[in-house]
Amino acid sequence: MPGWKSYLCCHDPDAMRRVARRLRGHFGATAKKVAVRSQQPWYWQWLIAVLLVLFGYLIGYVQFTGGDYGGLINSVNRLVMDNQTLEAKTVYRERQLQVERAAQKSLAEELVALQDEGMRLKEEVAFYKGILNGNSTAGELKLHSFKLNKGKLPNQYEYHILLIQAGRHDRMAQGSLKLSLNALRNGESVKLPLSDGISPIEPIKINFKYYQRIDGNFTLPNDVEVPSVEVSLTEPGAKQEKIRQQVDLPT
Question: Which residues partner with 145 through β-bridges?
C-alpha cells in the first residue's frame, strides 16, 4: 500500500501543504510557548508561608537564647518560687493587719468603758462629798442629779432623780416631790402633771437621812410641742419650793 504522503501528493497537493504548516506551527521555531501551572489551592501557599516565618522566628529565638533551655526553666522556677514567697508574705501581712485592727477595736472599747467608769467614779465622789460636806448647815436638802432618758415604748421617757442631805445627819429629810410637764399646746404654754399613760403621777413623799433615789417613767402626750420636765420639792410646812429644776426632753 502506498504511503499517506504519496497519497496526498498525488490526490491533493493543497492539503499536503496545510498539514505541513500545522506541524511547523506546533514543533517549529514559531511554536507557541506552553505555561505549566500548579494545581495547589491558594490557602496552602499561605499556610506554607506562615510555617516558614514561624520556623525562622524559632531559629532566631534559639540563636538569641543560645539554646539554654535549662537556664530558661531555672528562671521560670525562680519566678514561681518568688511568687509563692510574695503570696505567703501577703497572707502574713493581712493576718497581722487583722490582728492589729482587732486590737485597736478592743482598745477603743476598753477606753470607752474606762471613760464611762471614770465618769461614774467622779459622780460617786461628788455624791459622797456632797453628803459629807461639813460646811453645809444641818440637814440641808439638795438635788444631786436629775436625768431624762428615752424609754422602750414610743413617747415614753424615764426619769432618774437623786436627792441628798448634806452636812450633819441628825434628822430625817422630808418633803414632797412633784413632777410636771411644761410645753406648748395649740400655741399656748401649758403646765401638766406627768402621766404614765393611764393616770397622772402623784407627788412623791420624801423621807431619808443620807440620800434617796427616785426612778420612774412617763408618757408624753401627742398634742404638745417643745416639752420639758420640771421637778419641785417642798418641805413640810413650807409655802415655797425648796428645790426647782427644769430639764428638756432628749431628742
Answer: 162
